[in-house]
């Protein structure tokens, strides 16, 4: 089987890598490639163009921002043709130490991409899936992807990943 799903992630301390690998396992390693974008050179960014399903992961860092490495990739992504393609986002965060900025890299990534021609996002979640009270998410009807907290809710991670991947599979399995 040709691999038609590409998971691209950036990480600082490795949590996003761990989650990316779990997502890959759930989707099936026979059809899913995985990349740490730190190792993709600018001249090789055409790799993003090779997949029908693109899954982008980043930790959320200071001020609710995505990993800096994504900033050099987005100008390229904005020129991609997204017709007949799907994009799903995930982030890692820490709801106890950053309650007001929990997982907000999702918003930044979504904002960067939302105006791309014909882009379609999969894997949106509802704020009710997250048990906390202060986050900026409370003002949103939906969260733009999967938010994982390995510091405070690690026990929920396997189920969250599975539920999310099952949702993606509704589209992917028919591809
Ligand atoms: C300097 C710093 C700033 C952070 N800022 C946020 C934040 O604003 N919101 C949040 O949800 N998590 C924040 N975190 C928590 C990270 O997102 C969390 O530790 C995550 O698991 C890191 O993923 P990684 O291991 O892939 O780098 C911050 C962590 C660090 C070290």
Automatic annotation (TrEMBL):
Residue ranges of the TM segments: none
InterPro entries reported in the protein's UniProt record: Flavodoxin, Flavodoxin/NO_synth, Flavodoxin_CS, Flavodoxin_lc, Flavoprotein-like_sf
GO molecular function, one term: FMN binding
Cofactor dependence: FMN
UniProt entry tagged with the keyword Flavoprotein: yes
Domain (Flavodoxin-like): residue spans on this chain: 5-169
Superkingdom of source: Bacteria
Short name of any one Pfam family annotated for the protein: Flavodoxin_1
Family the entry assigns: Belongs to the flavodoxin family.
Role noted for this protein: Low-potential electron donor to a number of redox enzymes.
Protein's name in the database: Flavodoxin
């Amino acid at each position: 089987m040709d691999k038609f799903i590409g998971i691209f992630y950036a990480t600082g301390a490795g949590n996003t890598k761990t989650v990316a690998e779990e997502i890959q396992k759930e989707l099936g390693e026979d059809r899913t490639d995985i990349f740490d974008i730190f190792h993709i050179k600018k001249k090789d960014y055409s790799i993003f163009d090779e997949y029908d399903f693109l899954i982008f992961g980043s930790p959320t860092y200071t001020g609710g921002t995505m990993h800096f490495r994504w900033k050099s990739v987005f100008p390229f992504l904005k020129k991609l043709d997204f017709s007949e393609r799907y994009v799903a986002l995930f982030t890692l965060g820490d709801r106890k130490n950053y309650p007001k900025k929990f997982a907000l890299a999702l918003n930044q990534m979504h904002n960067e991409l939302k105006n791309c021609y014909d882009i379609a996002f999969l894997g949106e979640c509802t704020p009710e899936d997250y048990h906390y009270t202060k986050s900026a998410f409370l003002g949103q009807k939906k969260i733009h992807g999967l938010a994982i907290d390995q510091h405070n809710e690690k026990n929920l991670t396997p189920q969250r990943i599975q539920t999310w991947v099952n949702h993606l599979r509704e589209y992917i399995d028919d591809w």
